[in-house]
């Protein structure tokens, strides 16, 4: 091949735009997939460790790191399911009791190989506003969700009203009345090979530009 026939050199790959493309894909592909759509394939410890480690890298005002995780697996899931049902029964007025909700609380945990109850541990001196501690835990949960999606794993943040009760917090072993349970994170491998589509309204409707 003479010099003239050489193919043109492709431009160098810009690591910054590669990272942006990876971030865009990760964030926009993150999807909620519920336990009814999980297969019964187990979750390996290595994957679970990555999910929890990434949660631990969430932003945290004052470095309080308020996220706490209670990981239910194997027989532990049955204990969780039993407690969720008993708490639902206790806290729900008779005329509002729904059998379908009660049943779901009893079965959902068993459809997921791992269920993580998520807690906010309030800083003892209470210097950081509570809302910021809750926000930090939400960031940690988003990190878990992004990591799960990156792995192709299904994940679902569930927040039944009983999550926020004192009974739930105490049952998890969070002693201070200032602590909170923020719900449950169900993890499992999706049964379907088709990754679900997401949808959002237009971002321009949620942004106000201020220039002067
Ligand atoms: C704080 C919080 C609590 C949630 N609780 C529930 C819930 O109790 N039940 C539910 O079906 N989805 C719950 N979700 C998940 C949303 O339904 C889900 O994020 C939404 O449908 C958008 O889908 P996507 O996550 O695939 O983008 C919760 C999400 C957040 C952020």
Description:
About 40% of the residues lie in helices and about 15% in strands. With about 210 residues, it is an alpha+beta fold. The protein has a single domain, classed as 3-Layer(aba) Sandwich (NADH Oxidase). It has a 4-stranded antiparallel sheet with strand order 1-2-4-3. The model has no long low-confidence stretch (mean pLDDT about 95). The site of flavin mononucleotide has 7 residues, from strand 3.
List the SSEs and their pairings.
Layout: H1 15-29, H2 45-55, E1 67-73, H3 76-91, H4 99-111, E2 114-120, H5 130-151, E3 154-158, H6 166-172, E4 180-188
Antiparallel strand pairs: 1-2, 2-4, 3-4
Bound molecules: flavin mononucleotide.
Flavin mononucleotide (FMN) binds at residues 31-32, 157-159, 183, 198.
CATH homologous superfamily annotation? NADH Oxidase
Describe the oligomeric state of these chains in a short phrase: single chain
Distance between the termini: 61 Å
Strands of the widest sheet, in order across it, are: 1-2-4-3
Helix content: 25-40%
Count structural domains.
Answer: 1
Count the DSSP helices: 6
Computed Rg: 22 Å
The CATH topology turns out to be: NADH Oxidase
Q: Which architecture per CATH?
A: 3-Layer(aba) Sandwich
Small molecules bound in the structure, each named once: flavin mononucleotide
Q: Note the run of SSEs as H and E.
A: HHEHHEHEHE
Shape: globular
CATH class: Alpha Beta
Strand content: 5-15%
Number of strands: 4
Extract low-pLDDT stretches: none
């Amino acid at each position: 091949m003479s010099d003239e026939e050489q193919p043109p050199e492709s431009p160098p790959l810009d690591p910054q735009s590669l990272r942006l493309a990876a971030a865009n894909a990760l964030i926009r592909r993150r999807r909620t997939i519920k336990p009814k759509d999980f297969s019964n394939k187990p979750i390996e410890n290595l994957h679970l460790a990555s999910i929890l480690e990434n949660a631990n890298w969430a932003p945290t005002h004052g470095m309080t790191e308020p996220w706490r995780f209670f990981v239910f697996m194997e027989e532990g899931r049955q204990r969780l399911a039993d407690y969720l049902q008993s708490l639902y029964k206790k806290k729900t007025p008779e005329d509002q009791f729904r059998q379908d909700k009660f049943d779901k609380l009893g079965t959902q945990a068993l459809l997921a190989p791992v269920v993580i109850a998520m807690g906010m541990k309030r800083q003892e001196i209470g210097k950081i506003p509570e809302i910021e501690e809750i926000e930090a835990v939400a960031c940690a949960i988003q990190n878990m969700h992004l990591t799960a999606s990156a792995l192709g794993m299904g994940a679902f943040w569930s927040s039944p009203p009983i999550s926020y009760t004192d009974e739930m917090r105490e049952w998890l072993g969070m002693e201070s009345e200032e602590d909170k349970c923020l719900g449950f994170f169900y993890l499992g491998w999706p049964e379907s090979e088709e990754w679900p589509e997401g949808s959002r309204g237009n971002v321009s409707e949620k942004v106000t530009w201020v220039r002067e």
